[in-house]
Amino acid sequence: MIVKETQVIKLTLIPFALIVCLVSNAFGQALNSSMSVGARNVALGNADMAEPHDIGSLYGNPATIAMLGSPTVLVNHVQGSDSQLQEDVAFPVIYTKSQMLAFGAEYYSVGVLTGSPDQRRVSLGYNVAFASKINSTMSLGGLVLFQRGYVAHLNAAASASYALGFDYKPSPDLSYGLTLSGLGTGVDFATANSIVTPIQTVLSRALTVSAVMRFPTEASFRPAFMTIALASQKVFSVSGVNYMGGVEFYPTNFLTLRFGYNAGPAGARQAYGIGLSRGVLALDMAISSVSSGNSKTLLDQLSLSVKF
After folding, report:
1. Alpha-carbon 15 to chain mean position
2. Which of 31, 112, 203, 260 is the most exposed place for a label (fewest CB within 10 A)?
3. Beta bridge partners of 199
4. What range does the domain containing 78 cover?
């Protein structure tokens, strides 16, 4: 039994390592500056895009939601040290054993600007994701995000962006993901003479490859105690590589401990988190430190998901 389990681990580790190493060297990107959705994703260094954890996985790789064992509803809260605030909600609209249509909404704001108490930067987003299984181990999916940004007493700016995803899950212990994002336009805020104006921007396309594996494998007939997630991402308009990785441990059947790290030419991020689950409820918490040059930003994230 021990020899057989060792062989299974070796066979699964070979493609696991190759896909991450090859893509990491073939593609590169700068660190994504936008706030990620989902405390587990953040705590694992944004490297778990190959595995569906809850409905919030649609933000990382929309294809994964077709692999969810049961539909979930997600409520997510993000608080930044520089007055950033973000609220997200996501839930399935149509769900079958092989397909899922999901809807999400986002509210983002950046405090009250110094000297301009009525100029609060706000962005509202609405997204629709659809995923379908090709067979029992593969799925394809897409995400459309409509966004509207505005500042009080100024014109608003609207945008539409897209993402495509592929997920391959050859066994319950191993998943591979591929995501193409940054298609279309986004909303940003430009500052000139202390006046902030919402503007439409052209997004940078990004390709992300990720792999997630649990230990020990199912062949051991023992419960898993650890998950490892690795990913690499390329933003085509930026030179360099962004490497992402994370690990989580299960000391008990209701508690999960997580650590993640990602780094690229634009900066580095380290994150810590815990997960609590009981029955249909799961609560995930994460705190991350983002460093860029001489500046550092702290982000706290809290996610609550409910299975039904």
Report:
1. 22
2. 112
3. 188
4. 2-307
